[in-house]
Specification:
By secondary structure, this protein is mainly α. It contains 4 helices and no strands.
Length: 81
């Protein structure tokens, strides 16, 4: 979660809820864990959830919907407050 927050344009704040001191120590120990770019990419890939319909149908027709060149369309930047 910390690595995702570091790479995100939005602020992500993990909320922890330890029930005892041992759990708190374990949670705080995670602050010493640092992922390489390859590790982060691999974790992101294996934890991806297939979105199913209608997302897959829309993705399959994006090229046609965007004038035949979806890779040349730049998505607008949405500011995050």
């Amino acid at each position: 979660m910390r690595e995702r927050a570091a790479r995100s344009v939005a602020t992500l704040v993990p909320i922890i809820g330890p029930r005892n001191l041992s759990q708190l120590d374990s949670y705080l120990g995670a602050l010493d864990v640092h992922l390489t770019g390859d590790q982060y990419t691999r974790l992101t890939e294996v934890s991806a959830v297939p979105l199913g319909m209608p997302h897959e149908g829309i993705a399959a027709s994006l090229d046609r919907l965007q004038g035949g060149a979806a890779d040349r369309v730049t998505a607008p930047v949405v500011p995050v407050a």
